[in-house]
Each structure stands twice: as structure tokens, then as C-alpha cells.
Amino acid sequence: MNLCPERVLHAHLHSLTGCHGVARVIILLLLCQMWLPACSTLTIASLVASTVANSVERQQSEPKLDKTEIAATNISLGIEYMRKEEYEKALEKLSMARKAEPRNPMVYSVMGLVYQRMGESDEAEKYFRQSVRMDRSNSDILSNFGQFLCTQGASEEAEKYFVEAAGNPLYESPEVPYANAGTCAYKYGRTEQAIEYFQKALQAQPYLPSVLLQMTEISHDRGEFLVARDYLTAYLHTSSHNEKSLWLGIRIEKQLNNKDAVSSYALLLKNNFSGSEEALMLEKSGIR
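RE: above sequence
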């Protein structure tokens, strides 16, 4: 009398996985009915049902590779490597991100940043322009290209991208591109335009340390010493003194004949930033 080798059958059934697993199970069921007449249909069907259920459960529990997540993860890793100045590793991660999502514009924008830091301006510009072509509505992408153009001396073109980035109604931080536009304009001697951008930045976010300090400097250079003091006071509500703010404070208070403030600022500059360029200028100025 033939015996049904259920253990062998069970083992074969559990080995059937993959996209064609169910079809193979059905074939095996038919073969078992032909070859193993001692097995009851109920026994075989029960084993098949159990195996199919387990196979489906395993497939559902396996993590699915999401291309968007792969791209995002590798972009983040690329940025981290860039910050550590490990540029080859950064480009490797960004290449993996591009392979996962070839149409992700942020991949190309960050690649532009990496090549910019590597000093390869032509490659950087190529990737920046490609990212902008792919997504003109992304303010971060526009800002990245703007800052690159500013470093290349194309300040007016840079400002256009900064302003476009800030004008996006969905962008949550318009003060950032406005501040960048102001910094770029000020760097290339267009002070009035810089003031306009800085004021827009402060309207969006009143306590931006970098903007407040630049407005302190502009106001001092224009002879508006009380205004300069106000900007410096606002700056100190958000940040601690550095060598630049102390040197500005010394010169502002000297113009306002506030000797105590001058002495206080001068002491802080000499004690806390003795090796700085500003401390050297203080020493040469003869201000006490």
C-alpha cells in the first residue's frame, strides 16, 4: 500500500516562492494527485493553501524599495559628505540618487553645489542650470543657482533668481533668498538695492542676525549712527557679540561720544578676539 509522503510534499511546497510560486503550486497539486494516489485531495489542498498563505505573507512583509526614498536618502548622504569635504563620496551617493530618480531636480542642484566646492565652475553651472530647467518652482533650487552666480560675479542675474525664489507663495522662508540677494548686491557695491532686499527680508523675519549686522554696517557707513545703534541692539537680541559687531559698536559709539560703551566694547574685543583683524585695527586706531 502506497503511503503519502506529506513531509516531502510540504517541503517542496514551501520552497515555491517568487512571482510564479502560485502557478507552480497548482502544477504540483496536479502531479501529486497523479503520482501519489494514497494522498487524499483534502490533505494536499490543505498543504497547498497553507503554503500559498505563508508565501503571500512573506512577500507582503518584505520591505519594498521605494525609488523616491532611495533618492532622498542618497541626496542627504551626499550633502553630509559634501559638508565633510569628502567630495568623491558625495558624488557617488548623488549618482546613486540620480540612478534611482533621473528626473529629480534636487539631485542636479546638489551636484552643482559639490562641483562648486571642488572649484569646477563649468561642471557646477551645467548641473545648476539643468536643475532649474527641470523645476523652476523650487525655491531652494533657484537659491542654490543664485548663490553660485553671485560667486561668479553675475550679481544681477543672481538677484533675479533670488527674487524669484522669494516670490514663491508656497515658500516658507522668503527671508533667506531676500537676504542672499541683499548680500550679493552689497558685495558688488549696489547699496541701495541691497537695503531694499534687506528690508524685505526683515519684513518676513525681523530677527535675522546676518541681515541686522549688515544693516548696522550700512547705516554706519552712511553716517546714520543712531540707526546703526538700533540695528546693532536688535542684532544682540538674537546673537552674541563677535569681532565684527564689537568693532562696529566701537566706531558707532565713538561717533555718538559714548566713551563708556567704547571702552566696554574695546575691552571685549581685546580680551575675546585678540588675534582678529578687528583687534589689530583697534590697536592701530588708538581708540581706548
